[in-house]
Design brief:
The protein folds into three domains: 92 residues, no CATH class; 104 residues, SH3 type barrels (Roll), CATH 2.30.30; 134 residues, no CATH class. The chain has a seven-stranded antiparallel sheet with strand order 1-6-5-4-3-7-2, sandwiched between helices. Strands 10-8-9-13 form a four-stranded antiparallel sheet. It has a two-stranded antiparallel ribbon with strand order 11-12. The two termini are 61 Å apart. It has 405 residues and is α+β, with helices and mostly antiparallel strands. Strand 3 and strand 4 form a beta hairpin. 31% of the residues lie in helices and 21% in strands.
Length: 405
C-alpha cells in the first residue's frame, strides 16, 4: 500500500541528491478563466479551418467574434501574457485580417465584454456603455447559438435540399418586405439562406405576446454548419430583412422551377416527354430491348426529333420506335431533363458504340427501366410530387431517396 512522504523521507531523499519539487497549484480568477476559454475556442476554430478567424459580414457570427477576441487579446498585454504559454500554433504572432467596420465601431467596453472581462461597476450616477437598441437586437438574434447535438438527423435534409437545388427541383427567391414576405410566412419545415448559410426551421413554439403587443414565437433553427439556436421568429425576420442576399428556398411541392406561370428563356408554352425503344442489333440492346428506353424532352414534334436516328449516336445509330409521349405545359425543359436523369441515374445504360466516323461514343439518355415505372414518374411530375424520388433497380420501384443520394 502506498504511503505519504514524511519529513524524514524528504530529508533522506535530500541526502541522496533527489530534489522533491512541490506541485504548484495555479489559481485563476473567473475573469482569467473566461479569457482562456475564449482563446481555446479560437484555437479550435484555427485547427478546424486551417486559418485565423476573419472579420466581415459574409463570415459566420462566431468567426467574427473570434476575430474580435483575437485582436483584443493581442492588444491587451494582460490578456496576451495570460494565454501566451498556450499559444503552440503561433496565433498571437500571426497577422490578423483587417478588421471590419462592425468590429472597429465597438468601444473598449464592448470589446472587453466579448473577451468575458467584466468592468468594475461605475457610480450609480454615471451611465457607462448603455447598449443601444441595435446592439440589443443583434445580441438577441445570435442568442443561444450552440452546437446541435442531434445534427445527424438533420444533415440529410440539408443534403437533399442542395441536391434539389442542383437539379432544379427547388429554387431560391429573394426576400424583400415589399414582396409580401411576412413573419407569418416563416413556418416549420422551411429553409432559408442567411449570410450565405442554409438554415432549417425545425420547430415553431407556442405563440407569445411581445412587449410591443405583437405576437411572436420561439423557434428552433438548425444551421448547415451543425449549430442551432432558439431565436425568436421576429428576430429571424429582422435578420432576413437586414441581409440583402437572404433567400427563401422554394417548396418542391408547390409552383416552382419546373412548373411556373413566369416565363424564362428555357420555359416552353408546351413540351413533350417522349419514350423511345431502339431497333439496334447491338447485343446488349437486343438482350434488354423490352426494358431499355430513351427518355427525352422536346419542344417540337417527336417525328422531327428522330428523323435521322440511324445517323445519330444519341439514338444508338439505329431506327427507333416511339413507345409513348406525354404533353406538359409551362415546363423548363433543361431542368426537367436533369430531373429525369437524376431519378433514373442508377439504371442508366453503360454501353459504348461507334459513330459513323468510327469514334467511340457512350450515349447518356438510355435507361433500363420498365414502362410502368416511366408512367408513374410522369404522373408524379404532373402532380408535382416527384421531388425526392429515385428509381431502385433492385425492387423496380420509385422510392424516397436518402440524404446521401
Amino acid at each position: 500500500m502506498a504511503r505519504e512522504f514524511t519529513q524524514e523521507d524528504d530529508a533522506l531523499l535530500a541526502e541522496l541528491g533527489v530534489e522533491v519539487e512541490a506541485k504548484k497549484v495555479v489559481s485563476r480568477t473567473p475573469r482569467e478563466e473566461r479569457i482562456i476559454a475564449g482563446f481555446e475556442e479560437i484555437q479550435r476554430f484555427s485547427e478546424e479551418h486551417g486559418r485565423l478567424p476573419e472579420h466581415g459580414e459574409d463570415r459566420d457570427i462566431f468567426e467574427r467574434l473570434y476575430a474580435v477576441r483575437l485582436d483584443r487579446i493581442k492588444e491587451l498585454e494582460e490578456c496576451r501574457e495570460l494565454v501566451e504559454p498556450m499559444d503552440t500554433t503561433g496565433l498571437l504572432s500571426g497577422n490578423s485580417p483587417t478588421p471590419a467596420r462592425d468590429a472597429e465601431d465597438l468601444d473598449d467596453d464592448a470589446l472587453l465584454a466579448e473577451l468575458g472581462i467584466e468592468l468594475e461597476a461605475p457610480p450609480i450616477t454615471e451611465l457607462k456603455h448603455v447598449r443601444s437598441t441595435a446592439e440589443k437586437k443583434a445580441a438577441e438574434e445570435i442568442a443561444n447559438r450552440e452546437r446541435c447535438e442531434d445534427f445527424a438527423k438533420f444533415k440529410p435534409l440539408f443534403t437533399e435540399v442542395q441536391n434539389d437545388l442542383d437539379v432544379g427541383v427547388r429554387t431560391t427567391r429573394n426576400i424583400r418586405k415589399q414582396a409580401g414576405f411576412l413573419k407569418a410566412d416563416i413556418k416549420k419545415g422551411e429553409f432559408f439562406i442567411l449570410s450565405g448559410q442554409t438554415l432549417y426551421v425545425a420547430e415553431v413554439g407556442e405563440e407569445i405576446r411581445a412587449p410591443n403587443g405583437e405576437t411572436d414565437a420561439r423557434l428552433r433553427v438548425i444551421y448547415s454548419n451543425g449549430t442551432e439556436s432558439n431565436i425568436l421568429l421576429r428576430s429571424l425576420q429582422r435578420a432576413l430583412y437586414k441581409d440583402e442576399t437572404s433567400r427563401i428556398v422554394t417548396d418542391p411541392s408547390g409552383p416552382g422551377p419546373l412548373f411556373s406561370s413566369e416565363t424564362d428563356d428555357d420555359d416552353l408554352a408546351s413540351g413533350l416527354i417522349y419514350v423511345l425503344r431502339s431497333k439496334s442489333d447491338h447485343p446488349t440492346v437486343a438482350e434488354h430491348r423490352d426494358v431499355l428506353h430513351k427518355i427525352g424532352v422536346t419542344s417540337g414534334t417527336v417525328e422531327k426529333r428522330i428523323a435521322n436516328a440511324k445517323l445519330d449516336p444519341t439514338f444508338l445509330m439505329a431506327e427507333v420506335e416511339v413507345v409513348a409521349t406525354y404533353e406538359l405545359y409551362n415546363i423548363n425543359r433543361t431542368k426537367l431533363e436533369n430531373l429525369i436523369h437524376r431519378i433514373f441515374e442508377s439504371a442508366r445504360l453503360d454501353v459504348e458504340i461507334k459513330d459513323r466516323f468510327g469514334h467511340p461514343v457512350t450515349p447518356r439518355e438510355w435507361f433500363l427501366v420498365p414502362m410502368f415505372i416511366i408512367d408513374e414518374a410522369v404522373e408524379r411530375i404532373k402532380d408535382r410530387t416527384i421531388a425526392g424520388y429515385i428509381y431502385d433497380p433492385a425492387s423496380a420501384k420509385l422510392r424516397k431517396r436518402t440524404g446521401s443520394e
